[in-house]
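[Meeting: bench + compute handoff]

Bench side (C.D.) handed over the final construct sequence. Compute side (W.E.) agreed to return the predicted structure before the next meeting so the bench team could plan truncations. Sequence as handed over:
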Amino acid sequence: MFKTKITPLALVIASLSAPASADLIISEYIEGSSNNKAIELYNNAPTSIVLDGYTLGLYSNGSDTVGNSIALTGELAANTTYVIANSGAIEDILSISDTTSTVTFYNGDDALVLTKDGIVVDSFGQVGVDPGSFWSDASAQTQNKTLRRKDSITTGRTDSTSAFSPSDEWVQFDIDTFDGLGSHSGSEGSAPEPIPEPEPLEPLVCGAEKVLINAIQSDSSASPLVNTLVEFEGIVTADFQDDDQLKGFFVSSLAADIDANPLTSEGVFVYFADIDVNVGDHVRVQGTVEEYFDATQIGSVSQVAVCGTGLAAAATKITLPLADTTDLEAFEGMLVTLEQPLVVTNNFGLGRYGEVELATERLYQGTQVALPGDAANAVETENLLKKILLDDGSTVQNLDPTAYPTPGLSAENTLRTGDTVNTVTGALAYSFSLYRIHPTVAPSFIATNARENAPELNAEADLRVASFNVLNYFNGDGQGGGFPTARGADSEAEFTRQEAKIVSAISAIQADVVGLMEIENDGFGEFSAIASLVDALNDADSANNYAFVDFNVDQIGTDAITTALIYRTNKVEEVGTAAITTEAPFDFSNRAPIAQSFKSLETDEVFTVAVSHLKSKSCGSASGNNADSGDGQGCWNEIRTEGANAFANWLDSKPTGVDDEDTILVGDMNAYAMEDPIRAFADKGYKNVVAEIDGDTLGYSYSFSGRAGSLDHAVATQSLLSKIVAATDWHINADEPISLDYNVEFKSEGQQSSLYSESAYRASDHDPVIIDIKSEITLTPEEQTPVIKADQVFAVDENSAIGTIIGTLDFSDPNADESPVVKFITSDNDSVSINNQGQLIVAGEIDYEFENRITLTVQAQDSVGNLSNVEKVAVKVNNLRSDDDNDAGSLLWLSLLLAPLSIVRRFKKK
């Protein structure tokens, strides 16, 4: 998201370049009740003009930044008007309008500027000035009034920053005066002559000859009876007659009138609220068949008669997915029901318009799950068959409370994409090029995709790296002033709300290094945006000490936003030199790369973190190979791909001066998982971490037009990828309604409170990516060497059988995972051996009489050849013979010794 800033000086310069007279001027300004707002433009030239190049821009609340705008196209005939209306205006305005646009989301204190190719040709109000609630003078004011340009004014007011006095060029009419809209005809657009009263109508007769609803609808996309006055009958199935609703009701055919053609609808919308009807009424209607923006309806209703009450019309069951996107035309205007689980896929319009898109499953961007081209386009073709829009039937914007979820959207009671509903029943309508269901029964949503806390650090990990898009974090002058800024918060109060949510999110992530995108590019001084954010983090998280990487420049590149790196000084420290580059292709479009190396204070693991923000998909001036080729990748794909290749090459050059292969690049790549830039990174050796861990590309960090996908990625070298034990997107933003963000625009005073909390949810529009890393601990040779405990003594019985296990050595192996002990080297004795597990085993005859204590010399050796110190191990031999056995043995030996003496004596006697 960004807002373009045009300074007052720029507008003055533009006005000096304006022509002396302008063919196109603002001729009428309607600031009526509710959403009754419209702007009329008038071609006062004698010939037609081409509208291409003209833009009408809105400057809200004294801002010099253009907010909503509309680029005009087509051709406008001489002396004719072009009316731009608020989509929520009443039919009297919409029926005259040429288009609807958010540029009409103005109040009496907002300025409008009409430009031609960037040159101011007309203006209303004073850009850069907030007059309070309105501009006024003695004869006119800009709030709750209709103002028409004086006939004498034929040229535009080209100085949009000069003081504005309405009555100088405008004539005031009462609030909700629309009778001159679309006709800048003279006399300051005075009202036309009153229309004579019509002749009295003959009362309707129930049961008389009639046209059937299925004949009105027919089996084609448009009714064959357009502009025909008809009378028909049916049962009221949905009542939306209130002023803040559709101002009409839906009617379905009587049972006897239903035909056998499955392609003809049996329902129609009646745009009429003068006579109150109720669901279940049998009515007869007289009116004209219309195709209102391709929707068949009955308008210009002259009479409605209630023929009966209390009837019931059964809802027609329909299912998704469709066989063809036109299949729902056969049910337009009917009461329908979907009795199947449906998933919320788009809640962007929930708070503003009461709209929620439902589908059979979560829908993905084609290029998130398929290769660009035919495969990706086929995914989107299938997506269109799987979805339907749920519309609250109200024409009021920012309804308080919202229709869903019950009892209304709030900061705590959210409706996330991924949540589900099992049944939807309502009237099927077509408007703004979409089929939609206006519920007649409040849908009951299930929090299938409930919020989750930040993921805990993986049990194996000791480092965490994350990315976070901080959604145009601009801190004014850093001292409480300087608002509004080029982007981001419009006031200090909004900035306070924004900062609180971002701080909640980042502090909850508990990452050791965080790569940031979309932070103000105002350097690294005391009052810079990055300094402000780090100060706020340290105030909120007393257990850690955050710091930012200072790149020692006033700005990184030339864009208003930049990337940044913050880290926890109690966990890691900077090593090497913080690096940036602004060489092509980073001198235009792609933001300048940044990188810094870090070392873990706990394990001495060294790694490099880089941050990327590649060119967005918005087309703007895209041309040639950067234009949208229709393959699903949008505009600027070539320059993003060039950026990916160049970024990888830059990282390979070790820009921080640290010669280490462990590199991770995080950021907003503005490319989905299967697009060329992400595949270019992979070809260069930088793999998509989340996809590698998940084994698929179903992860997502962003939601656009009801399609999920990852614009935010972490890509890593193989050496670092091998150390990553967990990777995920924390879904605090993409799934949440935009109404829960920090902005106060388009919210009532009550909603500014009820829709806001300081929690992490909807802190941005992108989800953070979180990566957990297990350090590779580098041991010294001493730390890797096995150790045998000294002076170990074992015991064994004499005469134990060979193979008897005597015991197990007490030894330690500090690097067992990498280089385990593989053998024990023994010497000094062969009767005992030691196997590879350290078990002492009888290897020969053991005799107590021969040796009652065995001594071994032992060393342990690991798989890489490290040897432990030499240790002596003793084995005591247990004597198992009794004392009597010992005495008998002694007498035997004595007898043998004395035997020769006895023989000698015998020889002497002879």
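W.E. noted at the follow-up: The CA atoms of residues 464 and 511 lie 5 Å apart. C.D. will use this when planning the next construct.
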